[in-house]
Amino acid sequence: MMLPDDLMLLFINEQNGKLRADSSSVENALAGAVLIELVNSGLVAFEPDGKKLQVVDPAPVADPLLRESVARIDKPLKPQKAVERLRKKVRDNVAARLVDRGVVRVEPRKVLGIFPAKSYRIADERVALEVRKAVGDVALGYREADARTGSLITLLHAVKAVHKVVDGDKREMTRRAKQIAAGKWAGDAVRKAVEAIQAGVVAATAAAAAASSGG
């Protein structure tokens, strides 16, 4: 399981099969998770000035999601632009990974009885519960963040969704998520990458919101 898989499970409402956040927020957060995986795997890195990301390992990639994603970074890109490129079909691609692993089922549904949509049903509750408990314990202050939970909470915080996936006091969890996003739960290189990607997710989400409102 990679970060995008964990994040998708957190976004799924197991009661009704819908997502716990709007499509733009989910897709930008998932794209940020994919980007973190590309950095952590050594396929992509920041340029020396830390402003743009570029591919540094051109070797063939076995994982289909990472292979497709790294191909989209065909030139040095700022984090926001990288997130915007990676979010295309990212929700469907991550959901397909979870279906292949027997963790999720995707079923068709209708919105207002007319518009086609999808329901996401948890098929392996053990996996989903493990992810939700790990993130929930950190978001609620029961334990310290590590590289995995720190990255997930930072991405959720970037799209203002921590309180949507974890039950608890919204103000307190937001305060803690802000601390975690700025914390030292990983080495400097990883933390700086996540920090820059978080900013890219925030900017991409704001840009999408402005576009949808006509602003």
Task: Explain what the structure shows.
- The structure is a single chain.
- This protein has 215 residues and is mainly alpha-helical.
- The chain is built from ten helices and four strands; from the N terminus they run ααββαααββααααα.
- The strands form two sheets. Strands 1-2 form a two-stranded antiparallel sheet. Strands 3-4 form a two-stranded antiparallel sheet.
- β1 and β2 (53-55) form a beta hairpin.
- The model has no long low-confidence stretch (mean pLDDT 89).
Layout of helices and strands, plus pairs?
Layout: H1 3-11, H2 23-40, E1 44-46, E2 53-55, H3 64-71, H4 79-86, H5 90-100, E3 104-111, E4 115-122, H6 125-139, H7 147-158, H8 162-165, H9 170-181, H10 188-213
Antiparallel strand pairs: 1-2, 3-4
Helix pairs in contact: 1-2, 2-3, 2-4, 2-7, 2-10, 4-10, 6-7, 7-9, 7-10
Keywords, separated by commas or semicolons:
single chain, 215 residues, mainly alpha, yeast vps74-n-term truncation variant fold, two-stranded antiparallel sheet, 4 strands, 57% helix
User: How many E-type strands?
Assistant: 4
Question: Which residues sit in consecutive blocks of at least 5 with pLDDT less than 50?
Answer: none
The outline comes out as: globular
- Distance between the terminal alpha carbons, to the nearest Å? 38 Å
Class computed from helices, strands and strand pairing = mainly alpha
CATH hierarchy: architecture:
Orthogonal Bundle
CATH class: Mainly Alpha
Mean pLDDT across residues: 89
> Helix and strand string, N-terminal first?
HHEEHHHEEHHHHH
Largest sheet: 2 strands, antiparallel
CATH fold naming: yeast vps74-n-term truncation variant fold
Helical amount among residues, as a percent range? 55-70%
CATH homologous superfamily heading: yeast vps74-n-term truncation variant domain like
Residue share in β-strands: 5-15%
The Rg value, from CA coordinates, equals 17 Å
Tally of structural domains: 1
